[in-house]
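Q: A small favour: would you put together sequence and C-alpha coordinates for a protein?
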Amino acid sequence: MIRPKQAPLTEEELTYLDSVLERFPDDSAMNVEELDGFFTALMCSPKTAMPSEYLPEIYGVASMETCPALDTLEEAQKFLGLLFQHWNDVGSRLADDEVFLPLLFEDEDGKSMGNDWAIGFVRGMLLHQSDWTELLDSEEKGGLLATILALAYEHDPDPKLRSFKEPITDEKREELLDYLLASVMGIYEYFKPHRMQNARSRRKEKTARRGAPKVGRNEPCPCGSGKKFKVCCGDKRVS
Protein backbone atom coordinates (compact mmCIF):
# COMPACT_ATOMS: atom_id res chain seq x y z
CA MET A 1 0.00 0.00 0.00
CA ILE A 2 1.47 3.34 -1.05
CA ARG A 3 1.22 6.16 1.48
CA PRO A 4 1.67 9.84 0.62
CA LYS A 5 4.93 11.41 1.71
CA GLN A 6 4.56 13.09 5.07
CA ALA A 7 6.98 15.69 6.40
CA PRO A 8 8.65 14.59 9.63
CA LEU A 9 8.12 16.62 12.77
CA THR A 10 10.69 19.29 13.48
CA GLU A 11 12.88 19.07 16.58
CA GLU A 12 10.72 21.75 18.18
CA GLU A 13 7.55 19.79 17.42
CA LEU A 14 9.05 16.55 18.77
CA THR A 15 10.06 18.36 21.96
CA TYR A 16 6.54 19.74 22.33
CA LEU A 17 5.01 16.31 21.74
CA ASP A 18 7.32 14.73 24.29
CA SER A 19 6.58 17.43 26.87
CA VAL A 20 2.84 16.84 26.52
CA LEU A 21 3.22 13.07 26.86
CA GLU A 22 5.24 13.62 30.04
CA ARG A 23 2.26 15.42 31.55
CA PHE A 24 -0.02 12.42 31.37
CA PRO A 25 -0.25 11.04 34.90
CA ASP A 26 0.06 7.29 34.30
CA ASP A 27 3.57 5.83 34.42
CA SER A 28 2.82 3.70 31.35
CA ALA A 29 2.19 6.74 29.14
CA MET A 30 4.70 6.75 26.27
CA ASN A 31 7.53 9.10 25.45
CA VAL A 32 8.27 10.09 21.85
CA GLU A 33 10.90 7.39 21.26
CA GLU A 34 8.52 4.72 22.53
CA LEU A 35 5.75 6.26 20.41
CA ASP A 36 7.93 5.93 17.30
CA GLY A 37 8.49 2.22 17.95
CA PHE A 38 4.80 1.75 18.73
CA PHE A 39 3.67 3.40 15.50
CA THR A 40 6.25 1.40 13.55
CA ALA A 41 4.83 -1.88 14.85
CA LEU A 42 1.29 -0.77 14.00
CA MET A 43 2.36 0.21 10.49
CA CYS A 44 4.08 -3.16 10.00
CA SER A 45 1.15 -5.12 11.41
CA PRO A 46 -1.12 -7.11 9.07
CA LYS A 47 -4.22 -5.18 10.21
CA THR A 48 -4.86 -1.49 10.53
CA ALA A 49 -5.29 -0.20 14.08
CA MET A 50 -7.86 2.50 14.75
CA PRO A 51 -7.08 5.55 16.92
CA SER A 52 -9.69 4.36 19.42
CA GLU A 53 -7.51 1.25 19.89
CA TYR A 54 -4.07 2.82 20.12
CA LEU A 55 -4.67 6.20 21.78
CA PRO A 56 -5.43 4.64 25.21
CA GLU A 57 -2.17 2.69 24.96
CA ILE A 58 -0.25 5.90 24.24
CA TYR A 59 -1.88 7.66 27.18
CA GLY A 60 -1.39 4.66 29.48
CA VAL A 61 -5.08 4.13 30.21
CA ALA A 62 -7.52 1.25 29.75
CA SER A 63 -10.06 2.81 27.38
CA MET A 64 -11.11 5.95 25.52
CA GLU A 65 -13.51 6.78 28.34
CA THR A 66 -10.56 7.37 30.66
CA CYS A 67 -8.24 9.09 28.16
CA PRO A 68 -6.89 12.39 29.46
CA ALA A 69 -6.90 15.47 27.28
CA LEU A 70 -5.32 18.90 27.48
CA ASP A 71 -6.11 22.21 29.12
CA THR A 72 -7.72 23.82 26.08
CA LEU A 73 -9.34 22.70 22.85
CA GLU A 74 -6.65 24.50 20.86
CA GLU A 75 -3.88 22.62 22.67
CA ALA A 76 -5.68 19.32 22.15
CA GLN A 77 -5.99 20.09 18.42
CA LYS A 78 -2.27 20.86 18.18
CA PHE A 79 -1.28 17.74 20.09
CA LEU A 80 -3.48 15.37 18.07
CA GLY A 81 -2.44 17.04 14.82
CA LEU A 82 1.25 16.43 15.59
CA LEU A 83 0.50 12.91 16.81
CA PHE A 84 -1.20 11.96 13.54
CA GLN A 85 1.47 13.76 11.51
CA HIS A 86 4.08 11.56 13.17
CA TRP A 87 1.92 8.50 12.45
CA ASN A 88 1.96 9.43 8.77
CA ASP A 89 5.70 10.15 8.85
CA VAL A 90 6.40 6.64 10.19
CA GLY A 91 4.32 5.25 7.32
CA SER A 92 6.27 7.36 4.82
CA ARG A 93 9.63 6.18 6.20
CA LEU A 94 8.59 2.55 5.88
CA ALA A 95 7.09 2.96 2.41
CA ASP A 96 10.29 4.49 1.04
CA ASP A 97 11.74 0.96 0.65
CA GLU A 98 15.08 2.24 1.92
CA VAL A 99 16.86 1.73 5.22
CA PHE A 100 14.44 2.59 8.01
CA LEU A 101 15.80 5.07 10.54
CA PRO A 102 14.07 4.82 13.92
CA LEU A 103 13.75 7.86 16.14
CA LEU A 104 16.30 7.17 18.88
CA PHE A 105 17.12 9.72 21.56
CA GLU A 106 20.56 10.01 23.16
CA ASP A 107 21.23 9.81 26.89
CA GLU A 108 23.40 12.28 28.84
CA ASP A 109 26.49 10.47 27.54
CA GLY A 110 25.40 10.91 23.93
CA LYS A 111 24.53 7.23 23.48
CA SER A 112 21.39 5.82 21.85
CA MET A 113 20.22 2.84 23.87
CA GLY A 114 17.19 1.77 21.81
CA ASN A 115 15.30 0.27 24.77
CA ASP A 116 12.34 2.66 24.75
CA TRP A 117 11.91 2.30 20.99
CA ALA A 118 11.92 -1.49 21.24
CA ILE A 119 9.49 -1.43 24.17
CA GLY A 120 7.14 0.71 22.10
CA PHE A 121 7.38 -1.76 19.21
CA VAL A 122 6.51 -4.68 21.50
CA ARG A 123 3.54 -2.72 22.88
CA GLY A 124 2.39 -2.30 19.28
CA MET A 125 2.70 -6.05 18.72
CA LEU A 126 0.67 -6.77 21.85
CA LEU A 127 -2.16 -4.54 20.66
CA HIS A 128 -3.03 -7.21 18.03
CA GLN A 129 -1.00 -10.03 19.48
CA SER A 130 -2.56 -12.89 17.49
CA ASP A 131 -1.62 -11.22 14.19
CA TRP A 132 2.07 -11.61 15.05
CA THR A 133 1.96 -15.31 15.90
CA GLU A 134 2.79 -16.36 12.35
CA LEU A 135 6.03 -14.38 12.31
CA LEU A 136 6.97 -15.33 15.87
CA ASP A 137 6.57 -19.03 14.99
CA SER A 138 8.38 -18.79 11.66
CA GLU A 139 11.66 -20.73 11.63
CA GLU A 140 12.83 -18.79 8.59
CA LYS A 141 11.79 -15.23 9.48
CA GLY A 142 11.15 -15.24 13.22
CA GLY A 143 14.68 -14.03 13.82
CA LEU A 144 13.68 -10.62 12.46
CA LEU A 145 12.20 -9.91 15.88
CA ALA A 146 15.25 -11.07 17.87
CA THR A 147 16.98 -7.69 18.11
CA ILE A 148 13.78 -5.84 19.04
CA LEU A 149 12.95 -8.36 21.75
CA ALA A 150 16.52 -8.30 23.09
CA LEU A 151 16.40 -4.51 23.53
CA ALA A 152 12.83 -4.46 24.83
CA TYR A 153 13.52 -6.98 27.58
CA GLU A 154 17.14 -6.03 28.32
CA HIS A 155 16.29 -4.76 31.81
CA ASP A 156 13.20 -6.86 32.47
CA PRO A 157 12.83 -7.99 36.11
CA ASP A 158 12.42 -11.57 34.87
CA PRO A 159 15.90 -12.74 33.81
CA LYS A 160 14.34 -15.49 31.69
CA LEU A 161 13.07 -12.84 29.27
CA ARG A 162 16.48 -11.27 28.78
CA SER A 163 18.42 -12.37 25.69
CA PHE A 164 21.79 -11.62 27.29
CA LYS A 165 22.94 -12.78 30.72
CA GLU A 166 25.66 -10.13 30.88
CA PRO A 167 25.25 -6.36 30.33
CA ILE A 168 25.31 -5.35 26.68
CA THR A 169 28.60 -3.68 25.74
CA ASP A 170 28.72 -0.48 23.70
CA GLU A 171 30.05 -2.42 20.73
CA LYS A 172 27.30 -5.02 20.97
CA ARG A 173 24.64 -2.32 21.26
CA GLU A 174 25.89 -0.63 18.10
CA GLU A 175 25.68 -4.00 16.37
CA LEU A 176 22.12 -4.55 17.62
CA LEU A 177 21.03 -1.09 16.47
CA ASP A 178 22.48 -1.79 13.03
CA TYR A 179 20.53 -5.05 12.89
CA LEU A 180 17.44 -3.17 14.01
CA LEU A 181 17.39 -1.07 10.84
CA ALA A 182 17.34 -4.10 8.57
CA SER A 183 14.97 -6.05 10.81
CA VAL A 184 12.25 -3.42 10.66
CA MET A 185 12.23 -3.38 6.87
CA GLY A 186 12.21 -7.19 6.85
CA ILE A 187 9.18 -7.25 9.14
CA TYR A 188 7.42 -4.62 7.05
CA GLU A 189 8.00 -6.62 3.87
CA TYR A 190 6.99 -9.90 5.54
CA PHE A 191 3.53 -8.60 6.36
CA LYS A 192 3.09 -6.66 3.11
CA PRO A 193 0.92 -9.36 1.43
CA HIS A 194 -1.26 -9.51 4.55
CA ARG A 195 -1.75 -5.73 4.54
CA MET A 196 -2.57 -5.73 0.83
CA GLN A 197 -5.18 -8.44 1.31
CA ASN A 198 -6.75 -6.60 4.22
CA ALA A 199 -6.72 -3.38 2.21
CA ARG A 200 -8.58 -5.06 -0.66
CA SER A 201 -11.22 -6.27 1.76
CA ARG A 202 -11.79 -2.69 2.96
CA ARG A 203 -12.09 -1.03 -0.44
CA LYS A 204 -15.80 -0.61 -0.10
CA GLU A 205 -15.42 1.00 3.29
CA LYS A 206 -14.86 4.69 3.83
CA THR A 207 -11.27 5.71 3.08
CA ALA A 208 -9.42 6.83 6.19
CA ARG A 209 -8.22 10.42 6.30
CA ARG A 210 -4.45 10.45 5.92
CA GLY A 211 -3.64 14.06 6.58
CA ALA A 212 -3.35 15.81 9.90
CA PRO A 213 -5.99 18.56 9.59
CA LYS A 214 -7.28 20.71 12.40
CA VAL A 215 -10.10 19.02 14.26
CA GLY A 216 -13.21 21.20 14.57
CA ARG A 217 -15.16 21.40 17.82
CA ASN A 218 -18.26 19.76 16.34
CA GLU A 219 -16.48 17.25 14.11
CA PRO A 220 -16.24 13.56 15.02
CA CYS A 221 -13.29 12.95 17.34
CA PRO A 222 -10.36 11.37 15.41
CA CYS A 223 -9.97 8.80 18.16
CA GLY A 224 -12.89 6.89 16.63
CA SER A 225 -15.19 7.05 19.65
CA GLY A 226 -18.08 8.43 17.59
CA LYS A 227 -18.44 11.46 19.86
CA LYS A 228 -17.88 15.08 18.90
CA PHE A 229 -14.33 16.25 19.54
CA LYS A 230 -15.44 18.91 22.06
CA VAL A 231 -17.03 16.28 24.31
CA CYS A 232 -14.33 13.60 23.86
CA CYS A 233 -10.57 14.18 23.66
CA GLY A 234 -11.03 17.95 23.91
CA ASP A 235 -13.21 18.17 26.99
CA LYS A 236 -11.03 17.01 29.87
CA ARG A 237 -7.97 18.50 31.50
CA VAL A 238 -4.55 17.21 32.35
CA SER A 239 -3.52 18.45 35.78
